[in-house]
Amino acid sequence: ILNRELWKQMSFSKKIGWIVQYYGATIVVAIISILVVVSLIKSIITGGDKGDMRVIILDNGVSSELCQVYQDEVSNLIEGDAEMTAYIKNDPTHMQAFSVRLTADDLDVVIAPKEEMQEMAENGYLLSYDINGITAFYNGFPLEKQLIVKTEANPEGAVWAIQLDHESRYMTYRRDAGAKEEEDMYLGVTIRKVNDHNIEKTALYLLEQ
What is the DSSP letter of 168? Predict the structure, then answer.
């Protein structure tokens, strides 16, 4: 049995490796099956509309209530249905669910601490501005706010995420809800994005002061 202190000390990639080793493919298949069924039902009801904005958050400081606030405001912003789900970084069950969604689900934006975001970039879960030409998303942000990571595909380094300023809407709401400023949070675009037209609008809204 893995104790909570040892879990906290493990890196993001080691946590995923431990989950795969001890829980195996059965749980992954079950969760993916549920996601497929839900997606199928939604497609039947909505006619396959891809107008949603899907965001996943890995953050010890965001409760389900605060996540609902973000979701409601983004839904109003894009005049559509936003789905925003928060996972607790220090909870093994939440990490398992986060990892499965990151690898198997269609998602647009991910918010996570710097270390986890860097490992997502290295493992191919994010899109970079330099490699994939994401229009103006990363433009206008100072260099110190850009997460630049060197990968095999780009040994010179590329911009993979933007730091959420402590005065940004995301961090301000988080702080007002009583969360501690444990670590800096970053926002990036996932490799499985489906809603290009709303990504920049949503991201800038959360990054805005």
Answer: S
How many residues does this entry show for the chain?
Answer: 209
> Residue 202 region, left (φ>0) first, then alpha (ψ -120 to 50), else beta?
alpha
How far is C-alpha 135 from the geometric centre of its chain's CA atoms? 19
Can you give the pLDDT of all 209 residues of the chain as single tens digits?
556 677 677 777 777 776 766 666 566 666 666 666 655 554 434 434 445 899 999 998 888 899 999 999 999 999 899 999 999 988 889 998 999 899 888 899 999 999 999 999 989 898 887 555 555 566 667 788 888 888 887 788 888 899 998 899 999 998 888 887 667 899 999 988 888 778 888 888 898 87
Exposed/middle/buried for 108, CB within 10 Å: 0-12, 13-18, 19+?
buried
> What are the distances in angstroms from CA 77 to CA 29, 33, 38, 94, 109?
34, 31, 25, 28, 15
Strand partners, 158: 149
In this structure, what token pair is assigned to residue 42? 């939604």
Instruction: Quote the pTM value.
Output: 0.75
Closest of 127, 185, 125, 135 to residue 158, by C-alpha:
127
